[in-house]
Specification:
- This protein is mostly helical and 95 residues long.
- It is built from three helices and no strands.
- The longest helix has 27 residues, at 11-37.
- The chain is flat.
């Protein structure tokens, strides 16, 4: 039995969600590779794994923040999420 996607109750849309996530993960991996070429990111980071990790993590972190009562501000949520992305990529923590 297929599990319904609460964010996309239409089965046709639900089938597209994994494809969209893959496309965004691939784009993230390309951005990581570019950062590596420019010397901004460590060369030992696996771009494909890091891209998937970041997108999957952001997706779940956003869902968690939407369940939080009271909700944090957009600025606070953005700062928290960027901190997680920066840590994943070995970037200095934003101040």
């Amino acid at each position: 039995m297929r599990r319904a996607n609460r964010a996309a109750p239409d089965p046709q849309i639900a089938e597209l969600v994994p494809l969209l996530i893959q496309r965004v993960s691939d784009a993230t991996a390309r951005n990581i590779r570019r950062g590596q070429q420019l010397g901004q990111l460590d060369a030992d980071i696996d771009p494909d794994s890091a891209g998937a990790y970041i997108i999957g993590g952001l997706r779940h972190a956003l869902a968690q923040q939407l369940r939080t009562v009271p909700r944090v501000s957009t600025d606070t949520a953005t700062a928290l999420l960027w901190r997680y992305v920066a840590a994943t990529l070995g970037l200095p923590a934003p101040k």
